[in-house]
Every structure is written in C-alpha cells, then in structure tokens.
From TrEMBL:
Chain intervals for the UniProt region annotation (Disordered): 88-111
UniProt source species: Streptomyces olivaceiscleroticus
UniProt-recorded name of the protein: Restriction endonuclease type IV Mrr domain-containing protein
Domain of life of the source: Bacteria
Length: 240
C-alpha cells in the first residue's frame, strides 16, 4: 500500500494525510501516482475532463499513459488537485520483481465494519458517477440499491431500502438547495439522505448538511467516494 503524504488544504490550511491512488498498468504492475512532496494543491473550482487527467510513466515497463489526477478532499469542503511529479523519459528495461503484489486504493476512513475491498468504477461520464455511487452504497451495506430509471423532479438518483441519494456530476460545487432537496426526500420516505458530488460543495451547502446530518461524499475520477463531513465518516464506520 502506498505511504500517505501530508497535503495542505489551499482554503483552510489544514494539513490532511493523503494516500496516493494506485492503478494496474497494462503490463500488470501496480502504478502509484507520484505525488510531488511539497507541491501546492490547487482548489478545483471549475472541473474539466481534460484537466482531470495526468500523464504518468510506469516504472516497470516504461509505458506513458493518462491516469485520473489525484484529488484530496478536506473537511472544510474543499476539493483540491494534488500535483504529481512530471513524467520522466523512458527508463531502461527492467524485470518486475516476482511476487510483487498489486496495491489497492485505501478508503480515507478505515471502516470499523468488516467489508471486502471496494472496487471503484472509473468515472468518464455523468452516468458513471451514478454507477459509482450505487456500487459504493452497496459496499457500505445498503440493500436493494438501484438507479432511478429517470431523475424525477425531486432529483433523487439512487434509492435503496431506507435510503435516498442524489449525485451531482456537474463541474460546479453543489448548492444549498440541492442538499435541502435530498434531505426532504429522505424525510418524506423515512430514509437516510446521502449526497455525492464530483466538484465539492458550496460553503453554505456544507454547513446545512452538517446541521441536517446529511452524509456528504466527493468523488474523484477513480470512482472512489471520499467523506467530507462527520456524518459521512460515521456512515463508513458503522454502516446503515
């Protein structure tokens, strides 16, 4: 497993422990994102697909490929892009050490509930965002989790037993009204309301979610949701 590195939030200056994600290269070797120690993270205010990918060269086979840029979520609601070391020139051929095990992305909050390793869904489209949320909620322990056939006026994207969830795949921070809408849906259905966002949350939206105890998650392009408030941490620890 990759070692965690300190990442300072560009908004609140809080230092967070960040574990660089690891992906399997086409050659079969694990490729850990080479985070630039001491680099300055940049807050993601306007997300674009192009800027969300970085070129990284595999140390084992020398293959240069594009991978999801590493992102760190802070408790203040800021989502920042973590800089990586620029890809060097092709290395000399080398043999992958036998028995080298593949790393897996570590959940930001180690769950107290015993679960198998989460298998993320790489996000390339808005539909992938919803799929990733469905998979993650199932992993947390919710049952009968399904994607809504078509988003209704209520804005609910995912339903399960005792659960409603909304997914915001846009490139702007999620707004206050959307948090209140999903909370009201949960209240009407006597269900837990959960929110997933690709671009983070506006400050007033984050404050209202904390007051209403709505778990908030942000998703990077690896498809692994990360908790951004206490309610989300609690959900990961204890499950439904």
């Amino acid at each position: 497993m990759a070692d965690s590195v300190p990442v300072r939030c560009p908004t609140c200056r809080r230092e967070n422990a960040f574990t660089p994600p690891t992906f399997p290269c086409a050659c079969g070797a694990p490729l850990t994102m080479p985070v630039l120690r001491g680099g300055v993270p940049v807050e993601i205010q306007h997300r674009t697909w192009q800027s969300s990918w970085v070129e990284v060269r595999c140390e084992s086979c020398g293959r240069l490929d594009e991978w999801p840029a590493p992102e760190s979520a802070c408790a203040c609601g800021t989502v920042a892009r973590v800089p990586v070391i620029p890809a060097p020139g092709p290395p000399a051929p080398e043999t992958t050490p036998p028995g080298r095990a593949a790393h897996r992305y570590r959940s930001p909050t180690p769950p107290a509930t015993l679960r198998p390793a989460f298998r993320p869904v790489t996000i390339r489209t808005a539909r992938d965002c919803v799929t990733a949320a469905v998979q993650y909620l199932k992993w947390l322990g919710f049952t009968e989790v399904v994607r809504a056939p078509e988003r209704s006026a209520s804005g609910v994207d995912v339903r399960g037993r005792g659960l409603v969830a909304q997914v915001d795949p846009t490139t702007r921070p999620t707004r206050l009204r959307e948090i209140e809408t999903v909370w009201l849906n949960g209240l009407n259905d006597s269900a837990l309301a959960v929110f997933f966002s690709l671009a983070g949350y506006a400050k007033d939206a984050r404050s209202r979610a904390d007051a209403l105890h709505v778990p908030l998650f942000v998703m990077d392009l690896t498809g692994t949701p990360q908790p951004v408030n206490d309610a989300a941490d609690e959900l990961i620890r204890n499950g439904p």
